[in-house]
């Protein structure tokens, strides 16, 4: 198993914890010198905060660990392509390398809708490695949303709608 796969599996474990808490299953880890220094999972429902994305939480933890806002020697692993907010935070925190699992057709900003991580007009850009463990990452999301739709459908039937 290569290192990207190994660390993405750590991010997948974070996504599974998010799912167990009733959140959309997205997870992230930040690795520095072969050690996880930041972990995050989606917590928007739990925290009732729009910014409680996995990447944002992992970035906060990593900055605290390093006692610096610069994450210049780190790699961020995330199960879903970063959104505009998270891509902005990644650029601002100077993360040099981002590895993600599944593409996000609705909000992806690492190549799908746009590529903020490699925007030449910014003063910092990231290397981007897509589709590491993509099937596992995509399946987490697909099965989660399938269950949510089924639950909603069953609730409608129970309520006579």
Automatic annotation (TrEMBL):
Its EC number is 3.5.4.33. Coiled coil: none annotated. Homodimer. This is tRNA-specific adenosine deaminase. One of its GO terms (biological process) is tRNA wobble adenosine to inosine editing. CDD domains: nucleoside_deaminase. Catalyzes the deamination of adenosine to inosine at the wobble position 34 of tRNA(Arg2). Belongs to the cytidine and deoxycytidylate deaminase family. ADAT2 subfamily. Binds 1 zinc ion per subunit. The active site is at 55 (proton donor). One of its GO terms (molecular function) is zinc ion binding. InterPro entries: APOBEC/CMP_deaminase_Zn-bd, CMP_dCMP_dom, Cytidine_deaminase-like, MafB19-deam, tRNA_aden_deaminase. Residues 2-120 form the CMP/dCMP-type deaminase domain. Its cofactor is Zn(2+). Keywords: Hydrolase, Metal-binding, tRNA processing, Zinc.
